[in-house]
Specification:
146 residues; 5 helices; Ribosomal Protein S5, domain 2; alpha+beta
């Protein structure tokens, strides 16, 4: 079932924003009060999906909403996220980081709990660039003496 943005009323009074990044993925996340809908909009295609349907795997879905479960705020917020770049796994982790940062805007006292779980640390591991003369970043062509 596809839920549209018009079902959400995003405003300064009822939503909290956070940006998450992981690998090549960028997620802009809004936590919306008084709703339980979870919608994700993919920038490349412009389509909107249900979060659980888009992430496909239960583990990725649980990872994306882990900060909400950790703080005990389940059912109090709906999630609206726009994602671009990377794959589904990187996008799920970007959403997780964005949700954690949005929760900080909601209640700064949650910082110690989120920090202890490692949810406020940006995972900076990126793909290494390809070097000239090599096949990939480090993989070389087979060397032959003659």
């Amino acid at each position: 079932m596809i839920i549209k943005l018009k079902d959400f009323k995003l405003g300064f009074d009822n939503s909290y924003y956070g940006t998450g990044r992981r690998k090549e993925s960028v997620a802009r996340v809004w936590l919306v009060r008084n709703t339980d809908k979870q919608v994700i909009k993919v920038k490349e295609s412009g389509k909107e999906y249900d979060l659980k349907g888009y992430l496909q795997r239960e583990t990725l879905y649980n990872k994306a909403l882990y900060p909400i479960r950790l703080t005990g705020l389940e059912g109090r917020f709906g999630v609206y996220a726009t994602v671009e770049g990377g794959g589904i796994s990187g996008q799920a982790e970007a959403i997780m980081y964005g949700v954690a940062r949005a929760l900080l805007k909601y209640n700064p006292e949650l910082r110690t709990q989120l920090k202890k779980a490692g949810l406020l640390k940006r995972d900076a591991r990126e793909k290494e660039r390809k070097k000239y003369g090599l096949m990939k970043a480090r993989k070389a062509y087979r060397w032959s003496k003659r």
